[in-house]
Design a protein that fits this description.
By secondary structure, the chain is an alpha+beta fold. Helix content is 26%, strand content 27%. The radius of gyration is 22 Å and the shape is flat.
């Protein structure tokens, strides 16, 4: 049995995959409020970075349930952390095994996100924004101003409720800000990313250390220096991956993980400065 640390319906995509691959039965922790670890809408700040918050969430679920095994996830949304433009969703997932002192994490960065927000001046503008983010299958949040909390209505999924809430906030405060509700149960696009991330976590769970057989044997470092096919100069492309066991410390290096022994000269800083 594994506890899924969520109140936002993530078990709907996590549970079937864990059952298929490991015959694990997934249950929810009783009366577990994950909002105390932060909310996307900002009324509760996250108590630390995403990984620290995720670990606290999983430990909290273990404590309240009395179980030994828990899986949880944590999401962040904003400008792409690598490209520096465009929005991206960053999802982390963790399996904690308190009995065997094992922690396995997996991450996913995806540009397939409808994360967005806009100041709304007219009902027509609101309906256009709603259409862009996939409303009504994807819910909306309305508030008086960005990051404001004087008026905050989440989980809006009907046009009647959307327009009524818009007029209520507009009449009271004179301004309206709309944004995508990024909670998993209100965002099918994000739920797809969580399903993909679960599959990545499962791959890591199946990867055992060659020495002690502890699961979670994974890449901990990437070594650059794949030689150029023309001049032989080391490039910035990956030469090898370093794998390490978090339990016994066993380390091994896998050369040419992409199946390439040389890099194209077009990616060489010497041949193509």
């Amino acid at each position: 049995m594994v506890v899924v640390a969520t109140k936002h319906g993530k078990e709907s995509v996590i549970a079937p995959l864990l059952k298929t691959h490991f015959q694990l039965k997934c249950v929810l922790p009783p009366e577990f409020d994950t909002d105390v670890f932060g909310t996307f809408s900002g009324e509760v700040e996250r108590p630390g970075d995403p990984l620290t918050t995720l670990r606290k969430k999983c430990l909290g679920a273990l404590q309240i349930s009395g179980a030994d095994l828990v899986v949880g996830s944590e999401g962040s949304f904003g400008i792409h952390p690598v490209y520096g433009f465009g929005y991206a969703g960053i999802e982390l997932m963790m399996l904690l095994d308190s009995r065997n002192n094992i922690e396995i994490t997996a991450g996913l960065i995806s540009t397939e996100t409808n994360f967005a927000g806009a100041d709304i001046e007219k009902p027509g503008q609101l309906l256009d924004f709603a259409e862009r983010i996939g409303f009504p299958s994807h819910a909306l949040i309305l508030r008086n101003v960005q990051n404001g909390s004087d008026a905050l209505v989440k989980g809006i999924q009907s046009q009647d409720e959307l327009l009524k809430t818009y007029h209520d906030i507009q009449n009271r405060f004179g301004s309206v800000y709309a944004e995508t509700d990024m909670r998993a149960m209100h965002n099918p696009t994000r739920m797809k990313s969580i399903a993909k991330l679960t599959e990545k976590l499962i791959e890591k769970m199946k990867s055992e250390c060659p020495r002690c057989t502890t699961p979670g044997f994974d890449i901990t470092d990437r070594i650059t220096g794949l030689p150029c096919s023309e001049c032989g100069t080391p490039t910035r492309s990956t030469l090898s991956h370093v794998y390490c066991c978090s339990h016994c410390g066993f380390t091994t290096e896998k050369m040419h993980p992409a199946g390439k022994q040389f890099e194209d000269a077009g990616l060489c800083d010497r041949c193509n400065p």
